[in-house]
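Work Package 3 (structural annotation) set out to generate three-dimensional models for the target panel prioritized at the project kickoff. During this period the team completed the workflow that converts sequence records into discrete structure tokens, so that structures can be stored uniformly alongside our sequence database. As a representative example, we reproduce one entry of 291 residues exactly as it appears in the project archive.
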Amino acid sequence: MNTLYERFRIAPGTRVDLRNWDPEPPVDFGDREKALKLLGENNRRIARLQNDLYFENRQSLLIVLQAMDAGGKDGTINNVFAAMNPQGCRVQSFKTPTQLEQSHDFLWRVHTVAPRTGEVVIFNRSYYEAVLVEKVHAFASEREIEFRYKAINHFEELLNFHRTRIVKFYLHISKDEQLRRFMRRLESPAKHWKISANDYPERKFWNDYIAAFEAALTHCSSAAAPWFVIPANNKTFRNLAVSQIILQTLEDMKIRVPEPSVDLQQTRKLAAIELAQQRKETRRNKAQKEK
């Protein structure tokens, strides 16, 4: 499964046509139970590496999740990142810009929530909304959108220069699958909270959103911040593919836990002396009780 990294990565300079990317899992996906077992193993290894990243405190990781409505961003977070240590992991969501945020450039609100050293941050939606929603609904001119692609690339280069690794996932679902998920939400009271007033009306812009995603993936997949197109109609495969790519990314970061700041030999000696004293005291107390 290590080949998933290259299999779903958008190589820099590639012109993306999402008609060439199947939202269904590959035919060699295999058995679901085996996939779940591998996902569990991946998540345990990811958790250990994330813990090491936190203690190393020299690098950081930014994970960007984008998708059509009902594409599975929340499900991916719950199934891939839940095992991480919350001390060094944060999920950041982006809603409609506030009046204050709208009075600044589109990246102003993003920089302050980027990962600090030692941290993993998951963007549930991201600054890419500024070249998706705003492109589809013509809230920004084509000239402005073209400028934003360049600004995004420079922003990501800046983060990468300061030792932030970036991986970006487009969770690719079909239009029919989106409708099925909408219907399941309507039929399940436990999922009603997920329903947005814009969800169904936005479906009429499906083709426009696909074109906007294609443009963003084409302009903004780089060596410093690659995009991955993840087949997401099948949730198990989606989770497995994302976990495999995150695991490979963390391994490639060559994380090094810092050397201890104390004399371990002396500390062991002191601990051994204290332990011996405790055992001696325990035996003494036991003997006194038996008398």
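The CA atoms of residues 185 and 195 lie 7 Å apart.
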